[in-house]
Automatic annotation (TrEMBL):
Listed name of the protein: 7-methyl-GTP pyrophosphatase
Organism: Rahnella sp. (strain Y9602)
Active-site residue numbers: 73
Similarity annotation: Belongs to the Maf family. YceF subfamily.
Site residues (Important for substrate specificity), renumbered to this chain: 16, 74, 158
InterPro entries on file: ITPase-like_fam (IPR029001), Maf-like (IPR003697)
GO (cellular component) term, any one: cytoplasm
NCBIfam families, sorted: maf (TIGR00172)
Cofactor: a divalent metal cation
Listed GO biological process terms: nucleotide metabolic process
GO molecular function: nucleoside triphosphate diphosphatase activity
Length: 197
């Protein structure tokens, strides 16, 4: 990294998002933002994840004024209902049962906040996952093996979660892991950061 290149900060301590940035060859540090993630009344999924991604990045700007701050948030929509991380076996079981045989849309918000200029580039990427018809035994077996209780949608697509799917559709499969990496790299290039140079 050159002396004049901006520092990167991931506004998250997610091991999944960290792994994606590592995969892209980026040098970064992490900080955990404290924000209220309660959805607004009648807030649409794309609006919610963009607002939360922006909030996560901008709240850290005062502490990291010389950084480009990466904020991200994700929800999935099952039967027109916004769903987040399950946190428990029972919630995950009900999420996967509700998703069985259906197409579920994941909304991932991304915000790149420039602490120096106090401006942000914010967007939302969607990704569709069509689940095959799952038996209760398959759901239980999957949850006991992978325990994806900290993942929106109750699965880890980079692990055994792939066994739950019939098909995937979207621009960037990294979006499912919680960070639209292709879009982020494009935003970073606009800020003068390119891991290839």
């Amino acid at each position: 990294m050159s002396a004049h290149q901006k520092k990167l900060l991931l506004a998250s301590t997610s091991v999944y998002r960290k792994a994606l940035l590592d995969k892209a060859g980026l040098v970064f540090s992490c900080a955990s933002p404290a924000i209220d993630e309660t959805p607004g009344r009648d807030e649409k999924p794309a609006e919610l994840v963009q607002r939360l991604a922006y909030s996560k990045a901008s709240v850290l700007a005062a502490l990291y004024p010389e950084h480009l701050i990466i904020g991200s948030d994700q929800v999935c929509v099952i039967d027109r209902k916004i769903t987040g991380k399950p946190h428990t076996f029972d919630n995950a079981f009900h999420q996967l049962r509700a998703a069985s045989g259906k197409t579920v849309t994941f909304y991932t918000g991304l915000s790149l906040y420039n602490g120096e200029t106090q401006t942000a580039q914010t967007l939302c990427e969607t990704f569709d996952v069509t689940f095959r018809s799952l038996t209760d035994e398959e759901i239980t077996g999957y949850l006991h093996r992978e325990q994806p209780y900290d993942c929106a949608g109750s699965f880890k697509c980079e692990g055994l979660g792939i066994t739950l799917f019939d098909s995937l559709a979207g621009r960037d499969p990294n979006t499912l892991i919680g960070l639209p990496l292709i879009a982020l790299l494009a935003l970073l290039r606009q800020e003068g950061i390119n891991p290839l140079l």
